[in-house]
Amino acid sequence: MIEQQFLLEGWQKQGRNDSLCLLLEHGSLELYLNFLPDDAAENYISKITSNREELSWSMLQKVGLRTKKLTFTTVDWIQERVRVFGKWHNAPRLTAWEGDVGICYKYSGVIHTAGGWHEETNKIRERISKLTKLPFNSVLYNWYRDGIDTMGWHSDDEKELGENPQIASYSFGASRTIKFRLRKNNKIGFSFQLPSNSLLIMKGSIQHHWQHAIPKRLTERHPRINLTFRNIIQASY
Ligand SMILES: O=C(O)CCC(=O)C(=O)O
């Protein structure tokens, strides 16, 4: 049983069923397995995805979509350009950003101004805020089209997120590993699975001391969607 594996690795059970906590040297993690009730999770997936052919589909093809199983009706996906060792590349995943109207966030050198929420994503935000008693005014969507798509080592420590940002990361689709390592020595600290319908909360000073990453999993053929809810408290430009 997946919960058992977590307990063996030092996670502790919290009050709610399927809810686990890991206290770190700096900061802590909370993990909610089966976060949405089954019907709500399925409803969400069916509302933001569709198998119909449409404009956004052909646009996505151009940027190298590798799975034909999933199309999105309403989420505005882009493939960012990222600079690695002085060279520009397509980011190894698709992303989208939403939030309260007028909230600005700078990523990939572009200032994005939010125009509101996808209705269904907003419902997830409300559930997360109710559970965590934390406000979130924006969300970054990550679409890992298959196990080749990744997220490199980073901390969510942008100035606009404030001193100790609390990040709520909801995942569905293929299960992927998340790794954490201490920033002071770049040694891998630990890793665990983020199964479908799980919510990970990163709390306290974790972003100052730890980095996290989603490594490739070459055997994985299925897509995974991750939503990281954030609270932007100040503009940094
Ligand atoms: O896909 C994930 O679980 C991680 C996402 C993440 O680290 C981010 O959006 O900053």
Tell me what the structure shows.
By secondary structure, this protein is α+β, with helices and mostly antiparallel strands. It has one domain (2-230): Sandwich (Jelly Rolls), CATH 2.60.120. It contains five helices and 18 strands. The chain has helices at 2-8, 38-48, 55-62, 119-132, 206-209; strands at residues 12-13, 19-23, 28-32, 49-50, 71-72, 81-84, 87-90, 94-99, 104-107, 110-113, 138-144, 151-154, 167-173, 176-182, 188-194, 198-203, 210-214, 224-230. It has an eight-stranded antiparallel beta sheet, covered by helices on one side. A hairpin with a 5-residue loop joins strand 14 and strand 15 (188-194). The protein is globular and about 45 Å long. Residues 50-70 have low confidence and may be disordered. The site of 2-oxoglutaric acid has 12 residues, from strand 11, strand 13, strand 17 and strand 18.
- The assembly state of the depicted protein chains is single chain
Query: Based on helices, strands and strand pairing, what is the structural class?
Result: alpha+beta
> In percent, how helical is the residue content?
10-25%
Number of helices: 5
Chain-wise SSE layout:
Blueprint: H1 2-8, E1 12-13, E2 19-23, E3 28-32, H2 38-48, E4 49-50, H3 55-62, E5 71-72, E6 81-84, E7 87-90, E8 94-99, E9 104-107, E10 110-113, H4 119-132, E11 138-144, E12 151-154, E13 167-173, E14 176-182, E15 188-194, E16 198-203, H5 206-209, E17 210-214, E18 224-230
Antiparallel strand pairs: 1-2, 2-3, 3-16, 4-5, 6-7, 8-11, 9-10, 11-18, 12-17, 13-16, 13-18, 14-15, 14-17
This protein binds 2-oxoglutaric acid (AKG).
